[in-house]
Each structure stands twice: as structure tokens, then as C-alpha cells.
Design brief:
heterodimer, A: alpha+beta, Heat Shock Protein 90, 5 strands, 33% helix, B: alpha/beta, Transcription Regulator spoIIAA, 5 helices, globular
Chain lengths: 133, 109
């Protein structure tokens, strides 16, 4: 699916995933987790990925093969490799915990593989999850 | 996302329903902070109907928690669905929040 770089577009993604979850026979928790990782990736791109006010397209490709779901997110935003971001310390107390910084960590925790590529000014984020449906 | 405020004994119970995500986290923050700043120092967030949360929503939970700690108030969560509990576990939030199986247990603790 294609969306533009606006936060409201995330609602469209949620509806799309719900329909896909039904047609692929995914349990609700899996649909929610896939929705979550896609939202985290897209919100980073939409909020921080552009240094202009232009309209940009972001492509989300979901494929299912034997035992695996793969998500590829393609955008023409600024170069950003989320795999290099340091994980938050989840053992800190409430007072010590900084607010934010959980999005990429959730992606890494919920998916089995996270890969980033930059080719010809395009960011590719490839996320895979092993499944048994 | 929808929030409803109910008074139960000495507690202000905020019932959260639906999704808390990047599109509505600001709205959620305002709804909860209005209760926090209204003078009540005992709040339960009833998450029975909360079926989706992203990092934008978790962020608001932590902001509210920090505010309640600063006020020396009491914040409890109850009735988290298993999928939501998993996200809290991964984030390390299960250890920093007081989480109860249901509203009654939260009130009597």
C-alpha cells in the first residue's frame, strides 16, 4: 500500500492491516503487533524523516510465505538506520526513565529480523517475523 | 480512543477504550492530565477496553506516572489485555507501574 507523509495516514494503515489480518487468518495479537511495528517505523519517518514540507509517498509491502511474514517500508526521506539506535535501559525506575525512545526498540523486540538498506537515496526497512499459522 | 471518568470510592477511575496511538496520543494525554490536575490524588486507569497501544501511548502513560509521583499521588492500572501486557513487559513498564487484574483488586490494595 502507498501512503503520504501525514500522521493521519496511520489510520488507513490500521484499517488495511485489520482486513489483511482477517484474509490471512492471523490471530488478533499478531495483527496488532504488525500494526505496531509498522506504526513505529512510519511515525519516525513522517515526523523526523523529511527536511522539506513537500508531499512524499511511502510504500509498505507485506508478503506472507511459508512460516514468515515480511514487511518492507520504502521512503525517500533522510538517511536513517534504526538498527544502529541504542536500546533504552528498561530496568530504570519510573523517575529515571526518559520519556520516549521506545519505538525502534519495540520493532526489534517484536520482529525476528530487522534490516536497513539505503540505495539511490531510498530507505528500505525490511522486517521479518517467523510465524506458525 | 475513548475515555470515561467514573468516581469509585476515593478513586477517580479513567476507563480507556480502543486504540491509543500516534494519531490520538495528544488527545489521550489531555483527557488524563485534566483528571490529574483536577486535584484528585488517587487514579485508576482501567484498560479493559484498551486493545492497541504504540510507543506514543506508552509515552503518555509514563508522563502521567511521573506527574503523579511528583504530586505524591497514587496511580494504578488494571485489567490489561494480554497483548497490551506483553508490550508493557517488553518496555519494562510492568515493573514501574502498579498493575492489578481488575478494578476491585486495585481499589482494595
Amino acid at each position: 500500500m502507498l501512503i503520504s507523509n501525514k500522521i493521519d495516514e496511520l489510520s488507513k494503515v490500521a484499517i488495511f492491516l485489520e482486513e489483511l489480518g482477517i484474509s490471512w487468518g492471523m490471530p488478533d495479537y499478531l495483527t496488532a503487533n504488525l500494526n505496531l511495528v509498522i506504526e513505529e517505523a512510519l511515525s519516525n519517518t513522517i515526523l523526523y524523516g523529511y527536511d522539506d514540507a513537500d508531499n512524499h509517498s511511502i510504500e509498505i509491502i507485506l508478503t506472507k510465505s511459508d512460516g514468515q511474514i515480511s514487511i518492507t517500508i520504502k521512503d525517500d526521506g533522510l538517511e536513517f538506520d534504526p538498527t544502529k539506535k541504542r536500546d533504552p535501559d528498561t530496568t530504570l525506575s519510573a523517575e529515571e526513565r526518559p520519556v520516549g525512545g521506545l519505538g525502534i526498540f519495540l520493532i526489534k523486540q517484536l520482529m525476528d529480523n530487522v534490516q536497513y538498506l539505503r540505495e539511490e537515496k531510498i530507505n528500505y526497512l525490511i522486517l521479518t517475523k517467523n510465524i506458525t499459522l | 480512543m475513548n475515555t470515561t471518568l467514573v468516581k469509585s470510592g476515593e478513586y477517580s477511575v479513567i476507563i480507556v477504550e480502543g486504540r491509543v496511538d500516534t494519531t490520538n496520543a495528544g488527545e489521550f494525554e489531555k483527557a488524563v492530565m485534566d483528571v490529574v490536575e483536577s486535584g484528585t490524588d488517587k487514579i485508576i486507569l482501567d484498560c479493559t477496553g484498551l486493545n492497541y497501544i504504540s510507543s506514543s501511548g506508552l509515552r503518555i502513560f509514563l508522563i502521567v506516572h511521573k506527574r503523579m509521583l511528583a504530586k505524591k499521588g497514587c496511580l494504578k492500572l488494571c485489567s490489561l489485555q494480554p497483548g497490551i501486557k506483553e508490550i508493557f513487559d517488553i518496555s519494562g513498564f510492568s515493573t514501574i507501574f502498579s498493575i492489578f487484574p481488575d478494578q476491585q483488586t486495585a481499589e482494595s490494595d
